Request: fold
Amino acid sequence: KCPHCISSAKFIAEVSRSAKRVGVEMVGFTPETNRADVSKFMADNGMDFPVVSVPDRKSLGILQFRMSPTLMVLSPDGQIEHIHVGKITSDKEAVGVVVASERKEARQAKL
Reply:
């Protein structure tokens, strides 16, 4: 139903695959409450990562969700590595999400 999510779907799927290759997990958040619709959208677009339905605006705000899509990349220990807000319209933007999270994890490993 979200036009930005639909136009970003193939790039979001690539972000997810790239993130997994470097040990970073992606989690999706949606205001959509119909789990069947969410599951179908994920399957139709080759996305394989957990998606949490958060229908109330206050909770979405706490999660730093400002618009769809919002991508939150998590490290293996559950730390937020990177947040991308808005549609992704190119492979370059998709790769940028993963690269940003990899750089942050590399900086933290040096500490």
